[in-house]
Amino acid sequence: MTTAHQPQGAPGETRPGGRTARTREAVLAAVFEELGAGGFAGLTMEKVSQRSGIHVATLYRRWRSIEGLVCDLLTELSADVPLPDTGTLPGDLRALARSITAFYGEPRMRRLIEAVVSAAARDPQVATVLRSFFGERLALAGQMVERAVARGELPAETDPEQVMSALGAPFYYRILIARRPVDAALAESAATAVWAAARAGAYPREGHGPADDATGP
Amino acid sequence: MTTAHQPQGAPGETRPGGRTARTREAVLAAVFEELGAGGFAGLTMEKVSQRSGIHVATLYRRWRSIEGLVCDLLTELSADVPLPDTGTLPGDLRALARSITAFYGEPRMRRLIEAVVSAAARDPQVATVLRSFFGERLALAGQMVERAVARGELPAETDPEQVMSALGAPFYYRILIARRPVDAALAESAATAVWAAARAGAYPREGHGPADDATGP
């Protein structure tokens, strides 16, 4: 965790780099260490308070719950996955797939996403946070698809967010469903697959069906 | 839930259609109803016992935990997603994608998979069950890819289980991460994407890299 990231969306956040930001940094670092030590099941506000030195009442006031803390940590850490601009869509897809692989290569990151998905299953407010978090990331990442459409690499009716969802999907399937580590082969496969599928018209904007000649009978 | 499915893997199962099978059917039906009524968070052995009329000690003896019950239910219900054999891989992929969409079109099914993934995050034994459950399903579904390779529709070095993982991945992403309902457009997109990507060599067996001409620079 670095202070270079703009803290975003934390309740009470007003002065980046100020005391509020330092409190957040200490608390999120503590959450991250606790996740590494005991996973989500053993995570409590009290443990985060002890490790961070921040009073437990402050934690409840600013983050409401353990789930709120974990979601905020996810937002913070996602700034570590840069959005590439290599000049070609295949290059961008491959670079992003490699960043995602590096990110989830750490077991603690896999536990974090497991924790967030589990929390969302139990708590509708976490589900809302998760949906909006991934929505924002997809919209940002979609810019690389928009550039590709502008360059003529993809059909004009391509839906950027569908393309980016399709790039991410194999990683979450691997982590949450297949329950095996992500690796370089997965990154390569995901990038190759999305590039071929996008060119075949598999990710049309609403109202444009997938190209029939690509689907077959 | 129908009695037509072969009960599989339940501890103590010896006579399909016998008393043990009827017990399992009653218990799994109760779990399904409880999930629909209150979701996973409110699910307890006691509630399942009350609804099914099966003694709680029997539940603990045969299924060990709520997580064990939910995994067994998943196994039972997955028999409702038939594996197609239409004569072409695009036809098979589209038919299977539509079956998956119908399966997870029910909110209760989405809650079920959320529950299983959450349970796996907390309990390594559930994680093992989940991994082996999806491993078996992938191996079975992979037969449609093997037939396609035999028909010459796909490169010989195609990995069947990777293809089937790629077909499933967008559905689990939609449910667990994007947290929106699955729909016909997703089925169409998933089938179109996997067909295009598989032909481009995106799912090679270990030791065969993705086709370089499909990946670009």
TrEMBL record, chains A, B:
Domain HTH tetR-type: 21-81
SUPFAM superfamilies registered for this protein in UniProt: Homeodomain-like (SSF46689), Tetracyclin repressor-like, C-terminal domain (SSF48498)
InterPro entries: Homeodomain-like_sf, HTH-type_TetR-like_transc_reg, HTH_TetR, Tet_transcr_reg_TetR-rel_C_sf, TetR_C
Ranges for region Disordered: 1-21
Domain of life: Bacteria
Record-annotated membrane-spanning stretches: none
DNA-binding region, residue intervals: 44-63
Keywords: DNA-binding, Transcription, Transcription regulation
PANTHER family: HTH-TYPE TRANSCRIPTIONAL REGULATOR RUTR (PTHR30055), TETR-FAMILY TRANSCRIPTIONAL REGULATOR (PTHR30055:SF148)
Name this protein carries in UniProt: TetR/AcrR family transcriptional regulator
